[in-house]
Amino acid sequence: xxxxxxxxxxxxxxxIPISLGFAAAKDEVELTxxxxxxxxxxxxxxxxxxxxxxxxxxxxxxxxYRNTEYNxxxxxxxxxxxxxxxxxxxxxxxxxxxxxxxxxxxxxxxxPELKEFPEYVLGGATSIRxxxxxxxxxxLQHVLVLYNKHLFNExxxxxxxxxxxxxxxxxxxxxxxxxxxxxxTKDAWTLETLxxxxxxxxxxxxxxxxxxxxGEKTFESxxxxxxxxxxxxxxxxxxxxxxxVSYTDMQMMFAQELxxxxxxxxxxxxxxxxxxxxxxxxxxxxxxxxxxxxxYNSIYVDGSYGINADTDHLEEALKFIRFTATxxxxxxxxxxxxxxxxxxxxxxxxxxxxxxxSVANPTPYLMLTAFRYGQPSGSTLLQNxxxxxxxGTQDIETSLRKxxxxxxxxxxxxxx
Length: 416
Known about the structure:
Layout: H1 2-27, E1 29-35, H2 41-52, E2 58-64, H3 67-79, E3 86-89, H4 93-100, H5 119-122, E4 136-137, E5 139-148, H6 149-155, H7 163-175, E6 179-181, H8 189-203, H9 206-213, H10 222-233, H11 247-255, E7 259-265, H12 268-275, E8 281-284, E9 297-301, E10 304-307, H13 314-324, H14 327-337, E11 340-341, H15 351-359, E12 362-364, H16 366-370, H17 378-391, H18 396-408
């Protein structure tokens, strides 16, 4: 009997550690996190490492895909019942189709930190169909004029207060042998960015935005015509053969200090610092024809972090998603990536970002925020028609008419 008891105790001593080890292993969870941000891998490794300090059992695998391939890869995976646990979501219309198809988990009652976010920020992660929030917004982007501070000082240039002054400093830069603006037109999407910097001041910012969204004005209005005229006036100050200048060419021109200014998104600041650590960047808004005309710059939410409705690890995914809504994460985000965090209360430490925030008078980025919810999207129409306009193969009237007719095929306020 004693021999039996001894054997049983010995067996239990051997089994218990194995059982405990098995239980511990079960507590270890791996989450996949898909993104289009291939350039941000090291930053996200730091973010995840910080999260793991309090959640050592949740292992997050950050998997980025090519920006141009991401949407297709993600939608294909979700349609097949797979995909990542955590999803880097596009904003506005880019998120809407995934939410409508039931691929995402609503976060309204699951992420209490979202109550602190401004409504206009949450708009980038909110479905217009059901009004639910499906992601934690991660960045705010401003479109305005980035300029090289060193070259401005060297050439005796100044921050312009009127459109004529704007063209004057461009001419001075050109006469000095520099490229006034790095902007090219080869990649159509960059024309929407260019318009986002120039257009709002001349179509009237929020007033026109609200009117056109309500269907009270159209894209064939006088305001839009004026904005398109200003786009054409900038052509003499773009790079030589600008129709063949690509986005990467634009980045190189500005980073290598060949171009004095660049109408671009604030997200370029971090990239420029990587390409040229010594570059000093400032920012200002495109001015109006007179000093008393309000000047505006476009603003938008760049995307958000959401959760796959089919995840097997909702509790763990929510822990990470809630982490991205904290000020701690937001400060890390803006410090590491030199972008403006969407988390309330975060203060940029990069001087160029401070400059952006200090001069900004934002209005919604027109097509992205309101007209990407149907096909053909307002962005596609604007980009294509501006490309033809800037190339001189189409006039303003035709360009605006095509935009209006294209959006009117699906946008109900234009069909009344």
